[in-house]
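User: I'll paste a sequence; please echo it back and then give the predicted structure.

Assistant: Echoing your sequence first, then the prediction.
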Amino acid sequence: MLMKKLQFMAWPKLCSLFLFGAAALFTVSCADDELSGDTFVGTYSGSQLSKPDEGSITIKTSADRTTQTVSWKTVDGALSYVINVRAGSNKDSYDEVVAKDVLVRGNSYTFARTSKKYYRVSLTTAYNPAEGNTASDPNDPAVKEWDTFSTDITLPVGTDLASYFKENDPKTLSEGMPLIIGLEAGGEYTVSDAIDFSGVNATISGDSENMPVITFANQAESMGTIVTDYTFGFENVEIQWEESESAGTALVQLSKTPGYEATNNYYRIDRISFTNVKITDLKGCLVFDNSVQYCIVELTIDNCLMKLATVTSAINNGSLISIFGGGIKDFSISNSTVYQTGEGNSQYFLRYNNSARIDRFGFNESGYEPNKTTITYHNNTFYKVASGNWSNYTGIQNGTIYDISKNIWFECGDGAIARRILGNGSLSSSSSATWTFNTYSADQGTYDTGTYFTTDPGFANPAEGDFTISGSDQLSNQTGDPRWLK
């Protein structure tokens, strides 16, 4: 192997080899390779270099899906690396050679991408002649495996997503597979019009530590709207709108004309999710089903920070989650904060159509067994959200499991949070509820059957979005969004 040759060659030949290798790299693949120019750090003369950190290896697919780039963190003392890439139709047999013993100066390498393949990259650190040190162990490379059975694309910073997907049909891009739309860490993006992802399992994803920012344009009919009749998710992104007092429809709006057959008269969507998402001045509502009879199997909100629009005119629907035609089988919100600091508010936080029920969704032939609807609130902070009832879904009080634990509701709805969560405040024999250490601004009577508090959580500065807790009941029981428990 090239690595073994590098370790034992005489100095003059070694220098020549590095010059030849660099020239070959520029000649053969400079159009594909992202040569970062990273050089070694510190002095490591006469020592053996470590291999690249496996946890730092990342894969990015170009927006046109023709190439993919593998990148890794620079190894201290290193100048170059040796990379091997293999592919295959079976993850247990990588029988196709994509790159063999390629010498790379820098810390990235770009090569052709083929869909529906398994890939395996092996990386070692090459001998650095300037320092006289030795390469990392060729028999112990850093390894990264992935596949292209989902369609991953990375959009350049500054892309208008609406324009991009008008020119590039999401259905064609996805090839019938999940479409993962990657955004660059810290990048700024825009959405100038509605984007229709109907028929596509799509996720818009960013970097969890340095989230990209998406700015939606204000358009009364389609402002900030992702249209879908299928699985969709946001993860690791920050969302904001252009400054305006105009209302919008919804961030995620379900299609008026679903492209598939209904099950038991309900159009079934497997999942809509918001994971590690920061939203500033939410216009319209978060999700709107367009008054079509959908059943969202899972609607999940986790580790999110959502600030509502500050003026009433920017709120377009009567609820933040507006399921007017159908319902949700499993709703969960956890480790999140939803708040408002102005006049803007909706009547409800979560609203279902009253006909929504587990057996009507088509999960059980009759009755409420074996499947159940679930309503889950875990470790959330809600501040002055909803102007009337917290929720309205009396139809699903049968066949529902409620798990309501360690949440804070401060001046929300009409104050009767627990009763509203339960619909009309009662449980049928086919339902159950667990309540643990919740905080409310008003007494909940007998509807919250666990230990709960009406003491002040002592928020640090809610007007500026700081809900750091000082209340002893909340601190001792770790109640509310964990980000504020310091």
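The longest strand covers residues 267-282. The helical segments are 2-8, 11-29, 161-167, 170-174, 417-421, 472-476.
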